[in-house]
Amino acid sequence: MREIQASQITQAVRDMCIEANYSLSPDMRQRFETAADQEESPLGKMIFGQLKENLDIAQQDQIPICQDTGMAVVFVNVGQEVHIDGDLTAAVNEGVRLGYEEGYLRKSVVRDPIERENTRDNTPAVLHTSLVPGDQVEITVAPKGFGSENMSRIFMLKPADGLEGVKQAILTAVRDAGPNACPPMVVGVGIGGTFEKCALMAKHALTRDVNESSPIPYVRELEQEMLNRINGLGIGPGGLGGAITALAVNIETYPTHIAGLPVAVNICCHVNRHAKRIL
Amino acid sequence: MEYHIQAPITKETAAMLKAGDYVYISGTIYTARDAAHKRMDETLDRGETLPLSLEGNVIYYMGPSPAREGRPIGSAGPTTASRMDKYTPRLLDLGLGAMIGKGKRSPEVVDAIIRNGAVYFAAIGGAGAILSKCIKDSQVIAYDDLGTEAIRRLEVEDFPAVVVIDSTGQNLYETELLKYRKE
After folding, report:
1. Domain spans of chain A?
2. With 90 as the cut, is the pLDDT of residue B129 above it?
3. Interface test with B, best of A22, A39, A65, A67 (most B CBs within 10 A)
4. What is the dihedral of CA B124, B126, B128, B130, to 10 degrees?
């Protein structure tokens, strides 16, 4: 049994909350460059220029890329041969508390969805844990802004709707999101599983490197086709018209029930933040 | 067209601006988002006075991240305007001159914009770091207990925005995407 201290997890989560909010991962940054070149609209090109400058300023001045520094979504894969000395959930929340306080990040979480009193430290995180083989702990921190979260959708399609139904569901979600979701966006899609499983896959898909494609051939083709068709919607950077509405479409799939075809579309703005560490 | 305009905004300036114009706003503007709008609405329901005069003023839908030492404000980009739609027509009818946000507005808001000769600007969503450079001073003037959602008075200099809905109801979000639509 390998020992990992809860305090190591706290430290990692703290650091990743700050890192993810100050600088985008290299794959996202690179995608910005190529997409900016492909944009046809003059206003869209100008917005790309400002978004790139915004990334530079955030890094230089050590301030968040966007004022909505999100609700902290944390994926923790715990190796079965690891013993965590302490309370994992408390350790993650303490990391979020420290990161949001010491990193000058916005506190955007309310204690109760109806009473709406701000918790003032951005806790709690939304924590997803999985037990996996091995003796390591893999932590992904993905702060999620709500401009785009609010435009995300779940569709419980029928098996007869098939692949065409899935395509229409994705296009509907993106079309309805329009300028509200801060395009150019990254689109995470979950297909299959159950109601909650497809939503979780859609969220997890957003943490994937935007240069990677699905290992499943038809899903890889679907990702490419949907990226092209979403860009054909004309929404453009800032929703002000243009050829680039999405930077990537990442899709995950899972077996499902004979009676169903769940599809979740989790939309992320161009500030698609995620940081990963292995302890 | 490109214009440098002053806030508060005059009726003449609002009438001159057309959907698609690019503006640089200088002067005094106020922040308010979800919780502040709810409170202002409740204040009006009780027949009390608002903590700010609306006449010709510009409300920026924004809740900043905390300021580092020596700086007026943290990251400061627009939030989604449609969440304020429920409260907006009432504020426009009371003289609100313009709004800065991002995203679509309801038909009721568009009607109130036309009725009152107001204007809706979009700032670039997710560009909070660059926009913070245009904010020279920030003071909380009401609802301090709301934290980031408090009402702030901002002094801005050449704050960039696009006219999305003008005083005649022309809507850039609806017209511009048609030029690039292939789907």
Report:
1. 2-20+65-144, 147-272
2. yes
3. A67
4. -60
